[in-house]
Amino acid sequence: MADPFLIGDKMTGGYGGADILHGCTIAVERGEIAVIVGPNGAGKSTAMKAVFGMLKLREGRVRLDGEDITTLSPQARVAKGMGFVPQTHNIFGSMTVEENLEMGAFIRTDDFQDTITQVYDLFPILKQKRHQPAGELSGGQRQQVAVGRALMTQPKVLMLDEPTAGVSPIVMDELFDRIIEIARTGISILMVEQNARQALEIADKGYVLVQGANRFTDTGKALMADPEVRRSFLGG
Amino acid sequence: MSKNLKLFLGVAVLFLLTGLFISWNQALFILNFALVSAIMALGVNIQWGYAGLFNTGIMGFAALGGLSVALVATPPVREAWSAGGAGILGGLAIGVAVLAAAVALWKRMPKGRTRGLAMIALLTVGFILFRAVFDPAVEAVEAINPSVSGNLGGLGLPVLVAWPVGGLLAAAAAWAIGKTALGLRSDYLAIATLGIAEIIIAVMKNEDWLARGVKMMNLQQRPWPVPFEVELQANETFLNFAASLGFDPVTGSSILVKLVYMVMILAVLALVIWLSERALNSPWGRMMRAIRDNEDAARAMGKDVTARHLQIFILGSAVVGVAGAILTSMDGILNPGTYQPLRFTFLIWVMVIVGGSGNNWGAVLGAMLIGWLWLIVESLGPVAMSAITSGMSEGPLKAHLVDSAQHMRLLTLGVILLLVLRFSPKGLIPEK
Amino acid sequence: MDILNAFVAFLNFVFVPGLAYGAQLALGALGVTLIYGILRFSNFAHGDTMAFGTMVTILFTWWFQSIGLTAGVIPTAMLALPIGIAVTSALVLTTDRMVYRFYRRQKATPTILVIVSMGVMFVMNGIVRLIIGVDDQNFADGGKFLVSAGDFKAATGLKEGLAIKGSQAVTVITAFIVVAALFWFLQKTRTGKSMRAFSDNEDLALLSGINPDRVVQVTWIIAAALATIAGVLYGLDKSFRPFTYFQLLLPIFAAAIVGGLGSPLGAIAGGFVIAFSEVMVTYAWKKVVTYLVPESLAPDGLLQLMATDYKFAVSFAILILVLIFMPTGLFKGKSY
């Protein structure tokens, strides 16, 4: 069986103390959306950070496009084509929208003006506000800046840690639409979501984590249809 | 304990060697200096080691201690009091009243432009009133016999009274500064205390009516029971005793005076150690360390962190004030020009950190070791530099090198501090 | 009533000196605020870094003077300044490598870093005293006055003269150029933007591939340059004495905090706020007021709010007021 495009395989580890992840596997195919859901403290964000190299794994491997990247630093993974949007503190608040995008492209040595145009096409509001400090924007707009910043390296896979935390339902729908749009351009999306139901609706693949281990893994639709998942994790 | 005992013995050997090879007089001089510094180091250790407060104004609190000696122990200048005493006290009272009124006004009045204007009006009127009462009185006082007094003089009480008073004076200053700067970021306290220390010295240098400023003040008294050398040299019993030990009267009397001082300083030191050890191991001390190690958790448990910090800041500063008073009464002169931040603030910090912050015995050991080093390098530095440069021909370069040897100790001290911080951050005697 | 003469007296004794002093403080505070923004600690060694840079510049100034290399009306020190900056940069980079880097890797608390900077301060202070001694050093040359009081009186026919010292003109012009260059660098260049990004959000900057070591190195070099320039300008305007430079720490910190620690714009504003307050509070206003009021009301006293010896008290008082009422400063710094 061919490996998925990006896979965190049987990951075990934590932040130095007790293990948080116990043999947890997360994967995403090219151009698809994978969503990690689960109760609070299930290790969702931790699993995502593990894939991105922000904590040391005791066991398990991470492979990107067949290449073992387990020992690479997060910065090196960015260079390999991974983009990461942290849950909080994910913009440079004192810098303008455009400067945020430029900083996103910091490792690029070629001309990235095209990519900026693409981001503005995706999020037209950002073009309007491009000379405003990002910290002065609304919550939803700030998330757009954060996603736009991560897109500047032209990643092959984009990882989002609870992108809709703290935004209104309307803004959330809008954001999900954009995420689908990004996936259609061939970029894989791996995201952690608190709003499980809406997220699974757009997911090609869903992972339900409980206590740092995989509980259910299936397509988004199948998980939504599974009565046990519905009862335990989607509130009926 | 055996390792700690060895460390103290090692330092004791340093002092013994100084006595044997240089002179006992010199060894005792350094010892007394180191012991007073040890008291200051204990005060700093209470603040830093127990509560993590970073105070860079040690010099100011020590100077207040010194000032208290002049204010308590010198005889009052009656003429000056009648000429301007009332005016000066009245002026100061007006100043305090205006400040108190300003604080009350700020708290009572609703926010807004009226409050701002009222505040400005109050401060302006208050300032003019203060200067109108204060200035002529100061002028009158400073005009009286300026070559020997020109100040109000003191209370004419025994010097020993000045020691606790020095502590009180320093405590009062610590209260004022702690009220404003505590509870803010830790480096702000450092900057604020650095500033207040400079201002205290500026006041002592310029307010001649207070303690003659840079004209300095000689103290005619010594703390009971310290004798004067000249008295000893006229005393038959002492002369015989000195002769039987093989000392000439001048050296012998000087040594005896230093020994008496040493016993007194040791008594104060022992008292401070005993009290702070008791405090450290009491519920209060445990709470303090809990606050230091996790302020947020302590606050969440309902501890009033800022109030506790204020308490410990005042206590530590008071200890420094007492030490400052002892130092000045030992010197026999109050000279504001001698208060240098490197010597009074940063040297004490090096002592605490080298010795081991959070440990009282560490602070004492650090003070003994660094105090010894500081003074021995001062006296041996030029000698050593002369020896090193003896092969050089006479000239400006050689003169410069010999002159600058005394600055070597700043460099040495800085390097020691950096090395200890890096390789042994807990110090020689770590916290238990 | 003689408004014109009063105005000239004000310019001559308050505005011009305040402007020059403010520019010097602003440059010093910029260095402190940059270090704070990037390395996240209050650098107590900054005053002594200024002293060191000035000392190196003075030594080369003397050498240039001895071989006859001067620049006409511009002080020779300005020729030696680049060398001073280079040597000081080398010193602070070495210090960073040998001292600060270790604590950065350890993620030490700001207080520990402050204590460490105190140790560095000792060492730098010792080096400066060892090499040049503790005494006053005068190294100003070039044009003494841009405008002399006598010429001004002759040209305008006013009773009051306006004197602008060469050192004051050099200070203001240099400071203006340096500040403009610094802001251009921070706003327009890739490295400058990466520094702002690092100061704003360190984790995200790392995630974006910004090299922290490079940011830190560039910051130290800029801080060393700013410190040396500030120190040399101050020394030209007044005189060089190592201890004075240590004491400048207080007004410089006050300026940086008043402006908002971490904010370059704030540091400049803060520098001028502190400088003008200091000059205005310690200036004897008798002369200005005498021109303004009828003769019968002329003041007897000096109309001096505070003796010059208390100038530190002014910066201190402003510092305390800001800490109490506006802890983040005029330009919302990082401090709270």
Overview of this structure, please?
The complex is a heterotrimer of chains A (236), B (432) and C (336). Chain A has 236 residues and is of the alpha/beta class. Chain A is built from 10 helices and 10 strands. In chain A, helix 3 packs parallel to helix 6 (139-151). Chain A is globular and about 45 Å long. The relative contact order of chain A is 0.19. Helices cover 77% and strands 1% of the residues of chain B. The longest helix of chain B has 32 residues, at 249-280. The mean pLDDT of chain B is 88. In chain C, helix 1 (3-39) crosses helix 6 (166-188), helix 2 (46-66) packs antiparallel against helix 3 and helix 12 (264-282) crosses helix 14 (311-325). Chains A and C meet through helix 2 and helix 3 of A and helix 7 and helix 8 of C.
What keywords describe this structure?
heterotrimer; A: 236 residues; alpha/beta; Rossmann fold; six-stranded mixed β-sheet; 10 helices; 37% helix; globular; B: 432 residues; mainly alpha; ABC transporter involved in vitamin B12 uptake, BtuC; 2 domains; two-stranded antiparallel sheet; 18 helices
Q: What structural category arises from helix and sheet content of chain B?
A: mainly alpha
Strand content of chain B: under 5%
Instruction: Spell the H/E element sequence of chain B.
Output: HHHHHHHHEHHHHHHEHHHH
In helices, the fraction of residues of chain A equals 25-40%
Strand order of the largest sheet of chain B: 1-2
Q: What is the arithmetic mean of pLDDT of chain A?
A: 91
Radius of gyration from the alpha-carbon trace of chain B, in angstroms: 24 Å
